[in-house]
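Progress against Task 2.4 (sequence-to-structure conversion) is shown through the following example record, which the project officer requested during the mid-term review.
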Amino acid sequence: MAEPSGAARDSEAVSRFVEHFAAQLVEAGLPRMPARVFAALLASDTGVLTSAELGERLRISPAAVSGAVRYLAQQHMVSREREPGSRRERYRVHGDQWYEALTNREAVIRRWEDALRQGVTSLGENTPAGRRLAETLAFFEFVEKEVEAMMGRWRVHRKERFG
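Structure tokens generated for the chain above:
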């Protein structure tokens, strides 16, 4: 599935953007290859590319594409779909990928909270370690509530701005 031909772009400028944005994602903790694949998908007009298209644009092997897409799918940042009438897979980035990624993080935070509660109980809430864990737990509880409220505001803002 090639990009629409009506979109005239400087391919070098697009490539520079992809690599620059990928570098920012890497600095934030995303592995390098998934960051590059994600940035390439974001920069495509359709938001959909096949493995071959990703390999060609990024000059990477099919195995590298496969590993990157597997990681991104686990993080709810891209989805896999079959190309109509073909056995080939294509990969899609959605407009709500950030929302999905943050929502996935909320589940991780809840698991951390559960583990921290157990730690506070195990270590004793009046011990230095128990107090440290309790403060960490309070931080994650605060963050969870703030993210939930922020996502509600985002849904309203997104609807107002993008319909």
